[in-house]
Structure formats: structure tokens, C-alpha cells
Backbone:
């Protein structure tokens, strides 16, 4: 740490008007992480972070044993092609088969500063296509149901002793046997939307872990909206993307089965 261009230690007492510079060392390299040069869809890129539109079928963070083409691997390839030594930090991750907006820090400081934002300063909204129709008095609401795991299960459940979990939902449209729903997370539990919608009796199309068998290839869930207070510019920013082609096609088919 430098104070007024002189090296100081953490016990040094700061005074009004002091200029403080933190010198951050090079981040430790994960040798098992390999670069992938498959393309990424950049929605916004800033000096300290970027926002991507993740396709379905791609992990956000690779498993040590399973995947070398996750979003992080593709980002390593992207930065390598630009000859930039950056270690990406996933701030808002999505499940493999969920598509949409993902916030990536370019350094540990960006990760830390975004992680400090409160729930009102970093908002994610999703669109989901679910089985079944909602009653007139259930077209919007908040699901307040704790989520946890049972012993030796890969699935998550609504459990009395689970972690507090809250999801806001609003039905946008309905057709015979299916509904288009907008959702917002107040907590970030694993599979939260999928578990909560199944708990309501409206599992997602394509969710073969929590739902019912259908012909959609992946869970019909897309993070279409992200708003945040930029910790570097102190500006409020909003990002919105259109629905992915496969979900648009599914909803069109559900609305017009003869097409």
C-alpha cells in the first residue's frame, strides 16, 4: 500500500486528503484450467468487467474432471487472443442448460466489489416456460420456501430445515397447458427457480431433473435482464437481451400447435 506515494502498512493512520494506492499482486494461476477458443457473445465490456450472453449447454465454471469448454475456458481463450493476462471471475453464474446474461469480473477486485452490492443493487430477471396454467388469483406472487438437499441426492428440495429462499414471479401469458413467467431472485440457491416452480406444480419445460418428460432439449429458462449499480462508475446500468430462438420457437408452437 502506498500513501502519498510512500509505502505504508495496514496500521498506518490515514488523514483526510491522503492519496492511497493499493498494489495488487498477480493472481495465482490454475494450471488445470485450459483455454478454449470457441466464441463468446459479449453484450458489454468495460475495463474491469464484462457481461456475456451464455448459450444453453455451456457451463459457467468448468468441473475439474468434466469440461474444458466452459464459459471461463472460453474467456481465457478470448483474453489470450488479445494478449491480455486476465483471470476471469464469474460473479453471476447460470446452470449449464440455462441461457442468458452472466456478469464476469476481470480481476479479484471487481469480483469483490460486485459481491458487496445489496439485493436491490444487483437484480436479475428470468423468463421461463412452465407446464400448466395459473389460477386468476395466482398470476403473481412471492415464493418463500426454504431449499435444501436430502442425504446422497443430487436434487434440491423445499425443506423445512433448508436455507431461506425467495423468488418473485409474474405470469406474462398463458395458453393451453403452458405459461410464460417472469421471475426475479431475492436469494441465490442452487436450482432455485427450478425447485420453486416445481414446488408450485409448474415445472419448467425441458427440466428433466425436476419436471416431467417432454420434448424440449433443455430447461426453458433464460436470464434476460440485469441491472446493477456499477461500483466503478457509480452509475445505474440496465442490460436486456431478446429471447433465445429455441424458447421463442417453443412458445410459438405451444400457442399455435397446428403451426
Residues:
Amino acid at each position: 500500500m502506498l500513501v502519498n506515494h510512500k509505502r505504508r502498512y495496514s496500521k498506518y493512520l490515514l488523514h483526510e486528503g491522503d492519496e492511497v494506492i493499493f498494489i495488487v499482486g498477480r493472481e495465482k494461476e490454475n494450471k488445470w484450467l485450459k483455454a478454449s477458443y470457441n466464441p463468446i457473445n459479449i453484450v458489454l465490456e468495460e475495463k474491469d468487467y464484462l457481461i456475456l450472453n451464455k448459450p444453453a449447454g455451456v457451463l459457467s465454471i468448468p468441473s475439474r474432471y468434466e469440461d474444458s469448454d466452459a464459459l471461463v475456458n472460453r474467456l481465457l481463450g478470448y483474453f489470450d487472443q488479445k494478449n491480455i493476462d486476465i483471470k476471469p471471475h464469474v460473479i453471476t453464474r447460470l446452470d449449464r442448460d440455462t441461457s442468458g446474461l452472466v456478469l464476469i469480473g476481470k480481476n479479484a477486485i471487481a469480483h469483490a466489489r460486485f459481491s458487496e452490492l445489496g439485493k436491490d443493487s444487483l437484480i436479475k430477471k428470468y423468463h421461463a416456460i412452465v407446464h400448466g396454467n395459473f389460477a386468476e388469483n395466482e398470476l403473481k406472487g412471492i415464493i418463500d420456501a426454504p431449499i435444501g438437499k436430502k442425504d446422497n441426492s443430487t436434487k434440491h428440495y423445499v425443506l423445512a430445515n433448508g436455507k431461506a429462499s425467495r423468488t418473485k414471479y409474474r405470469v406474462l401469458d398463458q395458453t393451453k397447458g403452458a405459461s410464460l413467467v417472469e421471475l426475479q431472485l431475492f436469494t441465490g440457491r442452487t436450482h432455485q427457480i427450478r425447485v420453486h416452480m416445481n414446488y408450485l406444480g409448474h415445472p419448467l419445460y425441458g427440466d428433466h431433473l425436476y419436471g416431467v418428460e417432454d420434448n424440449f432439449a433443455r430447461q426453458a429458462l433464460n436470464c434476460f435482464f440485469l441491472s446493477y449499480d456499477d461500483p466503478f462508475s457509480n452509475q445505474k446500468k440496465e442490460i436486456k437481451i431478446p429471447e433465445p430462438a429455441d424458447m421463442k420457437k417453443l412458445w410459438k408452437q405451444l400457442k399455435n400447435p397446428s403451426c
Remarks:
- The first strand starts at residue 2 and ends at 3.
- The radius of gyration is 21 Å.
